Amino acid sequence: MAGPATQSPMKLMALQLLLWHSALWTVQEATPLGPASSLPQSFLLKCLEQVRKIQGDGAALQEKLCATYKLCHPEELVLLGHSLGIPWAPLSSCPSQALQLAGCLSQLHSGLFLYQGLLQALEGISPELGPTLDTLQLDVADFATTIWQQMEELGMAPALQPTQGAMPAFASAFQRRAGGVLVASHLQSFLEVSYRVLRHLAQP
Asked: What are the alphabetically sorted keywords of the record (predicted)?
């Protein structure tokens, strides 16, 4: 058991990481959006519906992790997430003064593709959480497909689908469940920004 002298720097580092990530998302959400695009309303409305569905799936996973394993505070796991190498997906091309449509769609797709990989890495998290995780994976994959198909229609899709990079390796059941809390939390932050951007684009 680590003593107070060891725990204090670790807690400080975890707090610093949490504040850094919070500041990043605050800046992104506070930045004004550029003018609305000419993306099809049917596409944008479908995306908004998919975002809300995934947010519900993610909340269900977080609630079950909290109720079953008492992992209720993602901020307490920030240091572990850093050591495991759980990444964040950027959306820097979306909430900007001059919204870069091609870049924004690409970052939306890349972020969803990243979370597909992270959710796949959580497989085997527990028998109780398996069905919820499966639903979340499926809905994230469907949303990624929706974005990709629109990119293809606009001629913005790259020639090849992206390939998945290295994912975190969870060495224990605790790490996998703690990783589940962090991945779900990161995904929710990503979706909040995504929803705001898509809602703006859907305005007449």
From this structure: Cytokine, Disulfide bond, Glycoprotein, Growth factor, Secreted, Signal
